[in-house]
From TrEMBL:
InterPro entries: FAD/NAD-bd_sf, FAD/NAD-binding_dom, Ferredoxin-NADP_redctase_2. Residues 61-366 form the FAD/NAD(P)-binding domain. This is Thioredoxin reductase. It catalyses: [thioredoxin]-dithiol + NADP(+) = [thioredoxin]-disulfide + NADPH + H(+). Coiled coil: none annotated. GO terms for molecular function: thioredoxin-disulfide reductase (NADPH) activity. Keywords: Flavoprotein, Oxidoreductase. Pfam families: Pyr_redox_2 (PF07992).
Amino acid sequence: MAFDFLDVSSEEGRALLREVGADAGALPVVVVFDGRVLRDPSGVEIAGALGIRTRPDPRPYDVTVMGAGPAGPAAAVYGVSEGLRTAVLEAEAIGGQAGTSSLIRNYLGFPRGIAGADLAQRAYEQAWLLGAEFVYGPRAVGLRADGEMRVVSLSDGSASISRAVVLATGVTYRRIGVPSLDALIGAGVFYGAAAPEAQAMAGEEVYVVGGANSAGQAALHLARYARQVTLLVRGSSLAATMSDYLVREVDAAADIVVRHGTEAVGGGEGRLTHLVVRDRGRGHTETVPAAGLFVLIGAEPHTQWLPDGVERDDAGYVLTGADRRGGAASASGGAHLFETTLPGVFAVGDVRHGSVKRVASAVGEGAVALRMVHDHLGQA
Ligand SMILES: Cc1cc2nc3c(=O)[nH]c(=O)nc-3n(C[C@H](O)[C@H](O)[C@H](O)COP(=O)(O)OP(=O)(O)OC[C@H]3O[C@@H](n4cnc5c(N)ncnc54)[C@H](O)[C@@H]3O)c2cc1C
């Protein structure tokens, strides 16, 4: 959808406001191609004005896919390819986490990388052209079984009714809240797992932020390649936040330095080359060379809205297949790798316990899960 931004202080911007009879009091003003003028609209209002569906069809779908990060549209592409009537529900923005990445370099088929927003747009278009119905805006707030149907209730009071549900609601990583560092995400600053970038850190100075197990594991993994890994920990000890065996391994590693009471407060431009670290006690800052900053200060899976019948691990990630506490057998009889403890409900991508947290794996899981949905619907 072609669009343009006009600054309200520009001559063009002022002229447009005059033309449509809007004042600068309720910005932003959105002027739609058919002449409608929206003042400080919500995302849902804009989507509605552009003709995008903001409520699911009341008639049942075959499958409802929750979330339009990489996993959701992948599931939808395979859903519609299998002849299933497929809805994709997204509360915030198509693309999910991947959509916020400035350059994804490790997704197959894009030798020079692809901007996350670009990938998201292509995925959306592909699923839409094949026949998936996207519903933008309302957030899923509940899920229940009603006989053979699965009902996802939405924040606007509507519901998506379908014979199967694929949960692809992903996670949110806690950010460190330093704008100059968040501007370098993908360009030396990484959230989540460190493994895919580790080899690129060979011989470099690398920093890891966090004091929990994920940070300890990342530091140990990075130390296999980097010249030195420095773990920046806000607290005065790791003992309260990291498992004992990891604390011992970190302490024993010659290439890992732990700096307590220290935080990252700034970095380079364009690409991370140095880091500004601050001693929280004394308040003084220092600039150090750094090729990588790995931030592992926790992630929140989007699963709070799910019923108890969809079993989760202690951190809230959805248990599927053999990870379910009941053992390896599928709730619906077969060996359904991605099925949850609620039959007919599957989970893929980052929201799933044990997932790899990468675009390619989320896409792959979405594709595989749809095969299982198909089998489930054949049985139902
Ligand atoms: C900044 C950044 C850079 C990254 N770079 C790379 C990279 O270079 N290479 C790589 O392989 N991976 C990268 N990743 C990881 C990758 O983006 C994720 O693994 C991937 O996006 C997971 O896909 P997903 O579909 O499972 O979940 P998500 O991408 O998290 O998408 C989930 C979607 O569900 C929606 N949702 C959540 N709850 C609800 C609800 N209740 N109702 C409706 N909708 C809901 C969310 O709004 C979101 O759009 C990066 C991640 C980040 C944050």
